[in-house]
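User
Class, as today's exercise, I want you to study this protein, comparing sequence with structure tokens, and judge whether sequence predicts the tokens.
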Amino acid sequence: MVAVGGPSTVRAGKKLPMGSVHSSGVRAPELTPETRLRLMGLSAREAEVCLLCARGFLIREIAPQLSIAGGTVKAHIARARYKLQCPSVRDLSALLLREGLITPEDLIDHHR
């Protein structure tokens, strides 16, 4: 049985770094940022909104892109912040950066 969690995969009691190859020839799966956020307890939509928000997109830009209302975007952000224990969107962005889910280039202001 393969259990997925954190930055490695556990196989038969041994941790494998993500992307490494086990002696049996099985490659540990590379996880997308969305999948890693799902493993941290977020819903698929919360993860999607969270990544867009952390990358600097505004609520009024995220809502039409995802075909949802601005209030729904705010609700997803609030739930993600609560689940990840981030008091602000800035802290949320810092967490995602620390976890390698976004890059410093993602934080560049794209509104200029």
